[in-house]
Every structure is written in C-alpha cells, then in structure tokens.
Amino acid sequence: MTQSNAERARTFRRLHAGPELLILANAWDAASARLIESLGAKAIATTSAGVAWSHGYPDGSTLPIELLVATVTDIARVIAVPLTADVEDGYSDDPVEAAENVARVVAAGAVGINIEDGTGTPDLLCAKIEQAKRAAASLGVDLFVNARTDVYLRRLAEGEAALRESIARAHHYRAAGCDGVFVPGVIEPKHIRALAEAVELPLNVLAWPGLPGAAELRTLGARRLSAGAAIATAAWSRTRAAATAFLAERQIPTPSEPAVTSRDLNGMFGG
Description:
globular; alpha/beta; TIM Barrel; eight-stranded parallel beta sheet
C-alpha cells in the first residue's frame, strides 16, 4: 500500500532519529530518483542545481516554480520512500509567497524541504520558515524544514567567526520552527561537533573535500549527509565524455563499471 504524505512525513522524521547517518544521494528527475531508491536509499532529496540544469536554468533561484512542482510530482509518482525538495530561498523575498510555493511542493508529494538564507537576512528566513510550516500543516503534513545557512559556503565569515555566526543563525531558525539545520561548507571536525552540540537539532553537512567520513561524522554529532549537486555533475561529466568520444570516433566508450541498460531502466518503471 502506498503511504500517504502524512505517513511519509512521519517516516522521514524517524530517519533523523535513528542510530545511523541519513545519507541523501541527491536526485534531479524521476529517473535519477528511482535509480537511487533502487540502490537502497531510505529517502530521496532533490538537488536544486541539478533540477535547474535539467530544465535549462542556472542554479540560484531562477527556476520557475512550475517546473520544480512538476519535477517533484514526477519523482513522487515513481518512488515509495520519503521525498525532500530543495526550494532554494522559496523563490520569493515575500514570506507569504514563499510559503505558497512550499505548499505547492508539498501538495506535489514532498514531506521535507531545504530552504536557505543565502545572502538574505536571518529574520527573512525565520519569517519564511514560520509561514512554510503553517502552510504545510494546513495540508495535513508535518513538514520537515531543513534550514540552510550559507555562512561557510559563501564565506560570509571565516574560522571561529563563521562558527559563531552559524550557531547564532541556527538558534534563530530553531526558534522559528525549523526541524534541522544544514551547514554546507563546514569541514572542521571541531566545528561540526560544536554545531551539533549548540543547535540541538539534526545537523546536515554537505559532501565536500576534506569532510570527515560518515562514521566520524556520526560520532561528531551530524545526522545527515547530502551529496548536493555532485552526483548530477558526475552524470553530466560522463555524458560529456561519452558524447565527445561518439562525435569524434563514432562509438560509445566501454564503461569501466557495469552499465545501466535500457532493460534496467524500463524495469524500474514497470516496463
């Protein structure tokens, strides 16, 4: 039996409370999501960059909300595990409009979101979180809001100042009702531990050069590890290499690992 959105929301919330790190190999369309699910993923997250690129837009809140909703609808149709969507900054500086956009994504099948402060003020993101939680509740979904702060990612501060600012912002977002905090760009073990201890909410980190391994991350207090756009860029890197070889030599290079076949892909979708 297919779970309802409310049931998937409860399942997704439980995944953050388990003994293991929640690993999210971010997808960008229905095929990538279903493939990742078939490999044993316990939940699917979207990558805003990958979704934007797949529709011909740059990353950075330029994607029309209609295309994000369509992507979430397609992914939710083919997977059974919980789905969390990256909604960037909510695609609006108006908290009410951002919440309306979140509601559309939730209605399409998402039970979690990432929403970021970027270059905006912490107060603005707090208002968006409050409005988004209310909008999702009106749809009967206990939405898991993962509040992303970009202090490290955008180098808004450095070193200990970055840690202090990230903790301060996380406290604001927690007071506004967020359920988890995402700090992309942090790699120092002592900073990861300090964030996890200070925020007292599930801490999400991004796969990044120099980041500790999954076992150490869990010991440090992190609860969630995201691939971000890395898998999408790897897929397009492989596409570029294969297409370059085909255009130059009229043949597809033999992959070094077992290839995904048409039969495999058709089988994932019941064909």
